[in-house]
Amino acid sequence: MTTLAATVRDHGEGERRWFSGGGLHTWLATSAETGGAFLLFEFVGEQGKVTPLHIHPASDETFYLLDGEILLDLDGKKRSLSAGGVVVIPRGVPHAFRVVSPTTRFLTIQTPGTDEAFYRLASEPAPDGSRPIPVDFDRVRDAAEKTGAIQIVGPPPF
């Protein structure tokens, strides 16, 4: 039996990565730290950031909004979500989002934590003072194809 060590991170701690689909991730609990049970990161994005319509074939995705507002497309239905809101997206459900407030910040939990390789391939380290990397959906698509963590099923539906 393997016993995991406790993971403790205070505000501002955690690996920071610029995502090539836009935004900044701060990794709060990695798949290795949770024994593969989940991946937890904070996302910070600016108005206009969108995702292509996609599915996660092997993981469920949960967002808990801390600040701001996003517009969700869940299987073709639009829904706004603001601070204090939560959405649980079961694996296989097509979804996308667009940041509609000037900025937004939310927690993302993926269960199990199998999609971490995708996020690593589609991002770059974000040391203090660094600037965001350009949005590169080709890189996102390549990382998706290499890892199988997501399947892009359409352009942003907004």
TrEMBL record:
It comes from the Bacteria. Residues 47-102 form the Cupin type-2 domain. CDD domains: cupin_QDO_N_C. This is Cupin domain-containing protein. It comes from Kribbella soli.
